[in-house]
Write a structure and sequence with these properties.
Elements (H helix, E strand, L loop, with lengths): L1 E7 L4 H16 L4 E6 L9 E2 L4 H15 L5 H9 L3 E2 L2 H12 L5 H13 L12 H5 L5 H8 L2 H16 L7 E6 L2 E7 L4 H13 L1
Parallel strand pairs: 1-2
Antiparallel strand pairs: 1-5, 3-4, 5-6
Helix pairs in contact: 1-2, 1-5, 4-5, 4-7, 4-8
Length: about 210
């Protein structure tokens, strides 16, 4: 078995920058399965108004845009400057878990679309209604998702994702682990350009 385990968080700006890369690599190396794991970056006492971290994030945006070739939307930048929206990884993590529980086959794309809601459109990721277009355009039923997202099953699945990040010793996002048979390889810790990532994965295949 060959599998890529992608540890990400919906509120992680570098994950947003990495998203086009991992989507492209997954398409090019389509004999690898892909599992997306929510890391729970903004939980517990880290939950709070975006204004608490706005200065740091706004200063980091030019570097992410330059290295990753992505663009942060004006609505997101205005949201950060206004500062009152509460940042929390909980609901977007449950949203992805609910999608996976319903046997959705495109969790990587759904995770990317969730990030676009935040980093491009400046939408509150804790509002269930904001997910409707993403889920309706996916391969799962929206009403089933809406029933599942606030269930104990989704919460348990989310906690299992958070636990998996801890089990693998993930200390930052994005991180990418390649599984080949019973061997695991940390192939990316932080942003990695596509060409470098493919080179690393080719070496894993040869090992």
């Amino acid at each position: 078995m060959k599998k890529l385990i992608y540890f990400y968080d919906a509120l992680c700006g570098w994950c947003y920058g990495f998203s086009p890369t991992i989507l492209s690599v997954a398409k090019e190396m389509n004999d690898w399965q892909v599992e997306v794991v929510s890391g729970g970056m903004v939980t517990g006492d880290r939950v709070g108004p975006v204004g608490n971290m706005a200065e740091y994030i706004l200063n980091a945006i030019p570097r992410v845009e330059e290295m990753a070739g992505v663009k942060f939307g004006d609505p997101y930048i205005e949201m950060m400057k206004e500062g009152s929206t509460v940042a929390s990884s909980i609901f977007p993590s449950k949203a992805l878990s609910a999608y996976k529980l319903l046997d959705g086959k495109h969790s990587l794309r759904v995770a990317s679309e969730i990030q676009k809601m935040w980093f491009e459109r400046g939408l509150d990721l804790s509002e269930k209604a904001n997910y409707e277009n993403i889920i309706r355009n996916s391969d799962v039923n929206f009403d089933a998702w809406a029933d599942t997202v606030n269930s104990k099953h989704a919460e348990k699945a989310m906690e299992e994702d958070f636990g998996k990040s801890q089990q693998f010793g993930i200390q930052g996002f994005p991180s990418l682990v390649a599984q080949k048979g019973d061997k695991y390889y940390l192939v990316a810790r932080g942003f990695l350009p596509q060409s470098q990532l493919i080179d690393v994965l080719r070496k894993v295949e040869e090992d």
